[in-house]
Amino acid sequence: MKRTTTIRTILLLLFFVLNINGYAQYSASLKRSTTSQKWIESMFVKGKTPPFSFTYGDTPSSEFIRKWNFKKSKIACDNENTIKYEITYSDPNGGMEVRCDVTGYTDFEAVEWTLHFTNKGKEKSQNIKNVAACDISFAAKNSDYTIYTAMGSNGSRHDFAPVVVETESDTTYTFSPMHGRSSDTSAFPFFNIATAGRGAMLSIGWTGTWYADFALVDGKLQSKSGMKNTDLFLYPDESIRTPLISYMFWNGSDRIDGQNCFRKFILAHHTRKINGKNAEAPICGGFEWGDPAPCNEYTCLTEDMAVAMAKRYKQFGVMPDVFWLDAGWYEGSGGPNFEGRNWYNTVGSWSVDKERFPNGLKRVSQTVHELGAKFMVWFEPERVYKGTYLYNQYPQWMLKLPNSNNAVFDLGNREACDFLCKYIGDFIEANGIDYYRQDFNTPINAYWDAKDKIEGRKGISEIRHIEGLYRYWDYLLERFPEMQIDNCASGGRRLDLETTSRSIPLWRTDYNYGEPNGYQNQTYNLSMFLPLNGTGLYSSDPYHWRSSISSATALNWENTSPRAGSIKDMQNVTNKCRILKFYFLEDYYPLCGDGDLTGDNLCIAYQLNKTSDKSGYIFAFRRGPEAPDKLVIKARGLDKMATYTITDEDTGTAIEKSGDEMMQGFEITFDKAPGSKLLFYKEGKE
Predict the structure, then answer these.
(1) What is the pTM of this model?
(2) What stretches of 235-361 adopt beta strand conformation (E)?
(3) What is the domain partition of the chain in residue ranges?
(4) How many other CB atoms are there within 10 angstroms of residue 405's CB atom?
(5) What is the pLDDT of residue 17?
(6) Quick one: which of 129, 109, 91, 112 has its CA closest to 38?
(7) Distance (Å, rounded) from C-alpha 597 to C-alpha 595?
(8) Fold of domain 599-683
């Protein structure tokens, strides 16, 4: 879904200004000197319109918010690079209060806020609707703006494909995901609004149906975003929250500088911390992958086999950081005599299949720990299949639809959420599980809509469910301080700023498992926004493993089969994963533009540049015989005057080039198709 593909040069200075529809009433420059502190002080001011809007009853907030009571309080914060404020707007006649929790990050010139609506009155409130958690305008002397974003995930080669919008006057561009999952198919909640030399990264933290609208009117780019469906009243003392909004301002020669600054921002402020350090994206390994029919996934795996397979990784010298037990370990899901029953249609009975695992999962976890690794287990707690334990035992917590065997566990019900927290938490503790993997394989918005119709409050079910999801994850992370959460929803369909802050997408797509060309596209595009992500690796063949590797990797080869390659090959790939994964956290440069790169008749390349020791890697791929056998690479981020030694990882041959020569362009030749090149470079002569 590409709106436009041409990128024009924009020689403009970007400002926030007032427009006729009640956006910000003042200017705040995007120059580097515009600190997050000053931005907050200028945007949230008594008597001025804040950077959000809503309709209360039938009246737009722009008509009354400046007259409401205003209070701004600075909140103590331990992080020297973080400032926090609590800002409230309250109806002087009593009733509605809007609290805005604002955070500024002074090391990145970033500002974030989340709105909370609370009914302080004694009667139910008027309806709240048309909520734009972000409602601001960008303006300049000229009216050109370019917006860079991506598609969501749909299990296809186009997952996370680039979307480039060159805005045109009097045209509205609307983005929103499908099916109630934040990065499902049609949209991705990260945007780069770029001009020449500067811009702003907009991120949305909402794991449901958000929206982002951009419209160029009278030379101003109007930007609105929030939750898509809201039209509801609040009971006395009832509160709701809205999506998290984040703006990070950047300066640089082009928008890739902004993307790299944003990657660093994500690592610094929206990555899980364990013992004060960023949680490291792991190399994962499985217990084989998939069983023969009628079994599927791990539905025929046994305790003895899992223990033996884990020890085999150790025997071969290809130990992962984490052993990954996926779907099919639970009661009723497995065994060769269970025709018609599988991992998918038995979720909701979260107890171990004692026939296959007589000691629960404890013996497997103990073995994994003795081998020096962590143990991760798959769950899908929000989807409950008809006839399972939770479905039968707690029908009051099930959201149902006619003619569907899938129910949704109502995380919006506080009692249900509390139960799930303790139930799964106790299970994790009892079975020695270190990392938690959560999947979600059903569109959820229809379940929310059905419940809203009963209550007469559009959007309340989604809000409560997403609040419950965050509460559930936060409970697990607090109870298990060294835990990591793997975020999978039919692949990467729940990627947003809130989930990124709590989890890593170790399985970013359900696209054709192991198909290398699609994996190349997904690495190429997703890496521009999220440095932490991973997918499956099925072969030690260089073309395949280079196509699959990222900051996280799931080793899905069958190490009982020659298809995985020799033991030496597997060792080499595992060792290379350990080296390369850290380079994926450095500056990232796509080297083949923003066009459609899904075809098999082309070449693709990208660069990882480590500024701390002036080294890096270039990955280059020739897909098929119709693709050219030569590719000109223009490296990025190097010292023009320095000399670099470039080593071909396949042949061991090395050449020397200046940084200027590398950035002006040098040629790579492929000797076969499909074929790949992995080039390591480092400043200095050999």
Answers:
(1) 0.94
(2) 239-241, 244-251, 273-274, 277-278, 283-286, 322-325, 358-361
(3) 599-683
(4) 13
(5) 26
(6) 109
(7) 6
(8) Immunoglobulin-like (2.60.40)
